[in-house]
Write a structure and sequence with these properties.
One of its GO terms (cellular component) is plasma membrane. The protein has 983 residues and is α/β, with parallel strands linked by helices. Among the domains are: 7-63, no CATH class; 240-377 and 393-550 and 669-711, Spore Coat Polysaccharide Biosynthesis Protein SpsA, Chain A (Alpha-Beta Complex). The chain is 48% helix and 6% strand.
Length: 983
């Protein structure tokens, strides 16, 4: 809620001020869009003379441009003013309600507010009293407390206001050649396919047709991947300006509060010490302590996690002041103390060495206590775990237990050793009962959204995985440079930070760092509508998670009946009179998929209490958000916060209520609100829904990485991780949210952004043509045939041009992105490794789940503990994912041996055609080489089961082809008179 009765300007963030009659200044009398007089003057000066929300010309435009002119009469202003109640009544005449889900008329809503739920009635009445009290206080304190210098500063024109962030396009000398080569490659691809299609290989028509289909699919995949990188950008933030604007000396800090979310499931796979380091880095972040709250979701209801948090909260009382006193980086103790750098650099305090040694000793003792808890938890007692007071641990049965919440530190009274307040730390374990669908991580995150809204209700949320610690203590300030920028942040749904990792071998054998994705693809998307949500290291606008649309929604085109479900109705209710017939407006009212679940918050802030009471219908809110009046009230507070008079014990009881397993039934949670259900990759789906509503996201890449995590570096775990991601993409493809057909009618998702999302859900299907294409070299070598006919001079030009354009595209991409050639090659290699293994299994599992209802259990990837460097790299775990790539390796090696043997027996003429076939086979072997090294392990031994399966499949494969086309019998007849490459 606003901090005073005067609304804040949506451009500069300051108060809109008072008009001539000591009332809040009104820029647009049509929709009451809050803008101060200075901003309106600036908009008109720049040539924008219409309201940003409704598009109606400003009533006071002439008088602002020319103060001496008085062309606007008061009567005209009063005629133009239309309240929200009038909008509702006009739409009810044609059978349509406003954005509220409730279908009650205005009269029914009014009667419901009077005689409905008494709790709801009391809530609304108390809210009105609080608003009126704030108005009185603001009028009493507004003028005397504002210094003259500050008043002059507020009246400065917009161009003098220092920006908090800046977008820096890629220099034209780098991006222009890149775009030219992309277009040239597209043209060459067209000419190449014209040649390939018009020149079939009759002697190997089946192989030729297969190769053509595969190559066309690869070309389409390249287009989907390449064109979203058309206009990459860089961004720069100014954290010093952020502090100067919102942390003025002698005044209360105006920085927005942030709620941190940390999720964990299994403490045996996700070591408590790793989670504790993440929590400690959050508590020590460089941000006002009263603005930070950390929520830890324990979805496994493990007593080990709870007890480790107790120890962590106690150690934080020493660790947090130490970090802030000496500006420690990073502020996760495990990673700080393991740094192999000069820790005395830039530390001039004589006491630092002594205090650092003492802190390291304290941390070692803390580790001993946590590791003792882990050792104790290895064997669960038959009677279950018992807490220190002798009572049974409520979460002994992880599938049947009540909701649990414990508040540590902060407002609970626990301060650091210097007596200063600490950020709040909250343990949350949502209720689990048999018979309910809990939606895994997405359900846990939605529970955290509701708990945090009841207890702290920060306007921004930053979620981290349990193994991603804060590496840059100013990361929150970096994000706030976008979120709190009045020009940039109002339409931003989330800030995505790149993922960086520790503990990966120097060569990054399995492309764990994903450098190409994070440094190339994501920067390209930032130039369109914003990066995709990747699950961690993301700062959210809470209002976007509630399903609201952005403040400035683009106008929607007229939709056909085929896509009438895709649009929104919110823009229609801004016009004074309905301009469409009743049937068309009824169709518009049904377009809820891309819209906010309830009305836009800004459409309610500027109306009187009577009009607001017509909109705040108890039933409409409960159908959307659930049966919690405290939570519903929090959703209306755009700037967050909870009432000062709120009883902490009452809030805890309400927080327990909102995490009950039946709370989400018959609501919009997981459908339009919060993290979206329906896929194991809920992150991609959630971000996609936000972009479809018209929001944009921003990619923030600080010089010092904001967050760092641990990645599974051994082959088996890496493939299972990729399998989970690919399976999520297949699930989205088979759902109603598929980007191929979802959201076209809204017109809010840009075309290149849609191409990026289509590529995100289609890439697993590339495994099918990739398997076929990697099998072709072995088939050609075993059968003596080839997929390309004898090359003419013109055909040679197309092949040469295609290879040249591929190389140039990569080189120019490396030039503007700064990615190394080794990273690009590793990414290419693992694209083949993952494509022929994990992606293939994901496609089949996805269709099995859809057709047969066979669900795949979510597997938590084991996180590294205190093992030696790269100790996990050589661990080998048997999995069926290893069979397809091993088979391809064996088949191609057999094919190369058979090809050379055939050439030796056939004479000189056979060596020319052999070169193309062997080159093709070596292309496959080189791409699978990291897989081969991982298969061998440290001792260069491969498990017998893998060898047996692969040799068996390779033998069957080879015998089938020999039976169909016995190349041995044809060798003598072909080589006598054949000199072309297709022999």
């Amino acid at each position: 809620m606003m901090q005073s009765g005067i609304p804040l300007c949506n451009s500069c963030g300051e108060s809109v001020g008072l008009g001539p009659n000591d009332e809040a200044f009104i820029a647009c009398h049509e929709c009451n869009y809050p803008m101060c007089e200075n901003c309106v003057h600036y908009e008109i000066k720049e040539g924008r003379k219409v309201c940003l929300r409704c598009g109606i010309p400003y009533a006071a435009a002439s008088s602002l441009v020319n103060p001496t002119a008085d062309n606007v009469e008061k009567d005209d202003v009063s005629v133009n003013h239309t309240t929200m109640a009038h909008h509702i009544e006009s739409y009810q005449d044609v059978g349509v309600h406003a954005r509220s889900i409730s279908n009650f008329s205005a009269l029914e809503s009014e009667s419901n507010a009077e005689s409905g739920n008494p709790i709801w009635k009391n809530r609304v009445e108390s809210w009105k009293e609080k608003k009126n009290k704030k108005k009185v206080i603001s009028k009493r304190e507004q003028e005397p407390q504002i210094p003259v210098e500050q008043q002059m500063e507020e009246k400065q024109p917009m161009e003098n206001v220092q920006i908090l962030s800046k977008t820096i396009p890629i220099p034209s000398n780098k991006i222009t050649p890149y775009r030219i080569v992309i277009i040239a490659r597209l043209i060459i691809l067209g000419l190449f396919f014209h040649y390939r299609v018009t020149n079939p290989v009759d002697s190997a028509f089946g192989l030729w047709l297969t190769s053509i289909i595969c190559e066309i699919w690869f070309a389409v995949s390249w287009v989907l991947d390449q064109f979203p990188k058309w206009s990459p950008v860089n961004r720069v933030t100014y954290t010093d300006r952020l502090s100067a604007r919102f942390e003025k000396e002698g005044e209360p800090c105006q920085l927005a509060p942030v709620d941190f979310f940390v999720s964990t499931v299994d403490p045996l796979k996700e070591p408590p010490l790793i989670t504790a380091n993440t929590v400690l880095s959050i508590l020590a972040v460089d941000y006002p302590v009263e603005k930070v709250s950390c929520y830890v979701s324990d979805d496994g209801s493990a007593m080990l996690t709870f007890e480790s948090l107790v120890e962590t909260a106690e150690f934080a009382r020493k660790w947090v002041p130490f970090c802030k006193k000496y500006a420690i980086e990073p502020r996760a103790p495990e990673f700080y103390f393991s740094q192999k750098i000069d820790y005395l650099k830039d530390k001039v305090q004589p006491s630092f060495v002594k205090e650092r040694r003492a802190m390291k000793r304290d941390y070692e003792e803390y580790k001993v206590r946590v590791n003792a808890l882990v050792a104790k938890a290895q064997k669960t007692p038959d009677e279950g775990w018992t807490m220190q007071d002798g009572t049974s641990w409520p979460g002994n049965n992880p599938r049947d237990h009540p909701g649990m919440i414990q508040v540590f530190l902060g407002h609970s009274g626990a301060h650091d050793i210097d007596g200063n307040e600490l950020p709040r730390l909250v343990y949350v374990s949502r209720e689990k009962r048999p018979g309910y669908t809990h939606h895994k991580k997405a359900g846990a995150m939605n529970a955290l959204v509701r708990v945090s809204a009841v207890l702290t209700n920060a306007p921004y949320i930053l979620n981290l995985d349990c193994d991603h610690y804060v590496n840059n203590s100013e990361a929150v300030r970096e994000g706030m440079c976008f979120m709190m920028d009045p020009q940039v942040g109002k339409n931003v749904c989330y800030i995505q930070f790149p993922q960086r990792f520790d503990g990966i071998d120097r060569s990054d054998r399995y492309a764990n760092r994903n450098v190409v994705f994070f440094d190339v693809n994501m920067r390209g998307l930032d130039g369109i509508q914003g990066p995709v949500y990747v699950g961690t290291g993301t700062m959210f606008n809470r209002q976007a998670l509630y399903g609201y649309g952005p403040p400035s929604l683009p106008s929607l085109p007229k939709s056909s009946s085929s896509c009438s479900w895709c649009c929104c109705f919110s823009c229609c209710c801004r016009s004074k009179k309905p301009s469409k017939d009743a049937s068309e407006m009824y169709r518009d009212s049904k377009r809820e998929d891309l819209d906010a679940a309830i009305f836009n918050l800004r459409e309610i802030e500027n109306y009187d209490e009577h009009d607001r009471s017509l909109l705040i219908s108890q039933m409409s809110f409960e159908k959307t958000f659930g049966l919690s009046t405290v939570f519903i009230e929090s959703t209306m507070m755009e700037y967050g916060g909870v009432a000062d008079s709120a009883n902490p014990s009452t809030l805890i009881k309400e927080a327990i209520h909102v995490i009950s397993c039946g709370y989400e039934e018959k609501t919009e949670w997981g459908k339009e609100i919060g993290w979206i259900y329906g896929s194991v990759t809920e992150d991609i789906l959630t971000g996609f829904k936000m972009h479809c509503r018209g929001w944009r996201s921003i990619y923030c890449m600080p010089v010092r990485p904001a967050f760092k995590g641990s990645a599974p570096i051994n082959l088996s775990d890496r493939l299972h991780q990729v399998l989970r991601w690919a399976l999520g993409s297949v699930e989205i493809f088979l759902s109603r949210h598929c980007p191929l057909w979802y959201g076209w009618g809204g017109g809010r998702l840009k075309l290149l952004q849609r191409l990026a999302y289509i590529n995100t859900i289609l890439y697993p299907f590339t495994s099918l043509p990739l398997i076929a294409y990697c099998s072709l070299p072995a088939i050609c070598l075993l059968t003596g045939k080839f997929i390309i006919p004898t090359l003419s001079n013109i055909a040679s030009i197309w092949f040469l041009g295609l290879f040249t354009s591929i190389i140039l595209t990569s080189v120019l991409e490396l030039r503007w992105s700064g990615v190394s050639i080794e990273d690009l090659w590793r990414n290419e290699q693992f694209w083949v490794i993952g494509g022929v293994s994990a992606h293939l299994f994901a496609v089949f599992q996805g269709f099995l789940k859809m057709l047969a209802g066979v669900d795949t259990n979510f597997t938590v990837t084991a996180k590294a503990g205190d093992d030696a460097d790269f100790g996990e790299l050589y661990m080998f775990k048997w999995t069926t994912l290893l069979i397809p790539p091993t088979t391809l390796l064996v088949v191609n090696l057999v094919g190369v041996v058979a090809g050379f043997s055939n050439a030796l027996n056939s004479g000189y003429e056979a060596w020319g055609p052999l070169f193309g076939k062997v080159f093709f086979a070596f292309w496959v072997i080189l791409h699978l080489y990291p897989f081969l090294k991982g298969l061998m392990g440290r001792q260069n031994r491969t498990p017998t089961i893998v060898v047996l399966w692969s040799v068996l499949l390779a033998s069957v494969f080879s015998l089938v082809w020999v039976k169909i086309d016995p190349f041995l019998s044809k060798a003598t007849t072909i080589t006598n008179n054949c000199i072309s490459i297709d022999c």
